[in-house]
Amino acid sequence: MKKLSDYVWEGKPLPLKGITDMHAHMGPLNMFYIPANDIHSMVKQMDSIGVERIVCSHHAVLSAEAVFGNNEVLKAMKEFPGRILGYVYPYPVNDKLGIDEVKRCIEAGMVGIKLHYYNRIPYTSEKYEKILRYADDNKLPVLLHTFGDIDKMESIFKDYKNIKFILGHSGAENPEMYVKYALKYKNLYLDPTNSTSKFGIIEYFVKNVGADRIVFGSDIPFLSQTHQIGRIIFADISEEDKKKILCDNPKKILGK
Questions:
Q1: DSSP code of 56?
Q2: What CA–CA distance (Å, rounded) separates 46 from 53?
Q3: Domain count of the chain?
Q4: Which of 59, 102, 120, 239 has the smallest number of Cβ neighbours within 10 A?
Q5: Helix (H, G, I), strand (E, B) or coil at 39
Q6: Phi, psi of 169 (to 5 degrees)
Q7: What is the pLDDT of residue 242?
Q8: Which pTM was predicted?
């Protein structure tokens, strides 16, 4: 029986249905050059691999231009229905850019929320309270940018049990901390997207947390989607566990 890795060596798209990249971006960024950042280039890369869909946010949302960035994602969703899904990114300095923007985008078809502390607002800040409560009430997934610093986030894991928190860049630093909290809070999912992960991190998480709590993310177009999915395909784990990470867990989180 052919393994997923056989398709890679043959240069063919993976045969699994429903492969979902849960951590993607789109568009240019003012800090450095990112090639092939347009949605058409990204879909071309998805097709070459066999990735069915991505859940993404626009780089512009890292600034006060959150509305522009969210609108760009909504446009991409309309151009590639079912293949491009969206995270709404709030900039919670006021209700208009915070909870109101979240409601607008979720009602327009986005499937979750992305938070990043690039705006220097801690996730535990009262500025996020309305947003997290809305996500909890509506059982929305929330992707958090993390980097080994999740101790300070524990209160929201505990307070918002209906949110499926996806911990972006799990294991980039302090992998044992991710295991600790994933075992303590069943609403946490590990997303090991990273360019410099420790060797064997996928196997470590599968062994200590379980494949049911891990998702595939690539950080495309920051990072190559081929590189990131290769970390799953060539990990020393079962083919069944690879399917869970690539297909089954995203479906469970998104409800579709």
A1: E
A2: 8
A3: 1
A4: 120
A5: helix
A6: 65, 35
A7: 98
A8: 0.96
